[in-house]
């Protein structure tokens, strides 16, 4: 019923930039928070950045100053602007959203299918 679709991944050289987008669709009344995680080959998934509906943000130390998360609440869309990319940023990037869901309106976490970001040296 609720789905998240990422786009914007690709191959870039070190020092380059990419902008990821994630659009949530379905029966959505409110999104509590949206964010980005990534999983590199052989590694566990880690938080990259998140933002609440009110605008509070959280970033992994490794991306502070280089990545910027933003939301368009009206479009249920979250973006991740990634600048000065390094090979260490290579990973599959996953969008997530925390959404109160009927019938109980408990907050559930939804995930996109991921978009590959590859940074060459």
Description:
Helices cover 0% and strands 57% of the residues. It has strands spanning 3-7, 10-13, 18-25, 33-39, 46-52, 57-59, 67-72, 77-82, 91-101, 106-111, 115-120. A hairpin with a 4-residue loop joins β7 and β8.
Compile the SSE list and pairings.
Elements: E1 3-7, E2 10-13, E3 18-25, E4 33-39, E5 46-52, E6 57-59, E7 67-72, E8 77-82, E9 91-101, E10 106-111, E11 115-120
Parallel strand pairs: 2-11
Antiparallel strand pairs: 1-3, 3-8, 4-5, 4-9, 5-6, 7-8, 9-10, 9-11
Keywords, separated by commas or semicolons:
121 residues; 4-stranded antiparallel sheet; 0% helix; mainly beta; 7-stranded mixed sheet; single chain; 11 strands; 57% strand
Put the structure in a nutshell.
Helices cover 0% and strands 57% of the residues.
Mean pLDDT: 96
Distance between the termini: 40 Å
Q: In terms of quaternary structure, what is this?
A: single chain
Rounded to the nearest angstrom, the radius of gyration is: 14 Å
Report the order of strands and helices.
EEEEEEEEEEE
Fraction of residues in helix: under 10%
> What's the β-strand tally?
11
């Amino acid at each position: 019923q609720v789905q998240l679709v990422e786009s914007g991944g690709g191959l870039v050289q070190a020092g380059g930039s990419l902008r990821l987008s994630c659009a949530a669709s379905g029966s959505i009344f409110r999104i509590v928070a949206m964010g980005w995680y990534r999983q590199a080959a052989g590694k566990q998934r880690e938080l990259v950045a998140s933002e609440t509906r009110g605008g509070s943000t959280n970033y992994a130390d490794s991306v502070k100053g280089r990545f910027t998360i933003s939301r368009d609440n009206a479009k249920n869309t979250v973006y991740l602007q990634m600048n000065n990319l390094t090979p260490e940023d290579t990973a599959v990037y996953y969008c997530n959203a925390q959404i109160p869901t009927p019938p109980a309106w408990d907050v559930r976490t939804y995930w996109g299918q991921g978009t590959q970001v590859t940074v060459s040296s």
